[in-house]
Design goal:
- The chain has three helices and seven strands, in the order ααββαβββββ.
- It has about 150 residues and is α+β, with helices and mostly antiparallel strands.
- It has one domain.
- The longest helix has 13 residues.
Length: about 150
């Protein structure tokens, strides 16, 4: 049997490279909260105001000219793998929630309440050691959709 003159060097290089690969599913567990949160930013969003970072937590505010429906659809498809307008999903420890809050309480049970002057949708995802919370809103008469993002890494 022939032995390599490199010893365990190839194994060490392989371990380093494997640790740097972005694994399927986009699990950002191997990154800091600010870097991991970047995977949850709507592609056409622009950050505004000051972002904040602490131990295992990051938060920032963004806006976009895109309609709120486009932003919510992106989050539901890209981040949450969620179908439907409202509700919760769970499987194998992963949890997701979509909760719109854009209507007043109905005066009669079973009927839809009057629209509020602001559209608001709360999206939440908890996956194996990290949590993303996104609140998307757009007020009547405003030209921008607002996105408030909080990322927590256990």
């Amino acid at each position: 049997m022939r032995r390599s003159c490199l010893g365990s060097f190839p194994l060490a290089v392989a371990c380093l490279l494997l640790g740097a690969l972005p694994w399927a599913g986009g699990e950002p567990w191997h990154k800091g909260p600010k870097d991991a949160a970047r995977e949850s930013v709507y592609p056409k969003a622009e950050k505004f105001g000051q972002d904040r970072e602490g131990k295992n937590i990051y938060q920032a505010k963004y806006t976009t000219l895109d309609p709120i429906a486009d932003v919510v659809s992106w989050y539901k498809a890209k981040r949450l793998k969620f179908t439907g307008d409202e509700g919760v999903n769970w499987s194998a420890g992963d949890r997701a929630s979509v909760l719109p809050d854009s209507v007043q309480p109905a005066k009669v049970a079973g009927e839809r309440g009057a629209a509020r002057p602001v559209e608001v949708v709360s999206l939440f995802q908890r996956v194996r050691g990290w949590t993303v919370s996104v609140v998307v809103s757009r007020a009547e008469g405003e030209d921008r959709t607002h996105i408030a993002l909080t990322y927590v890494d256990d």
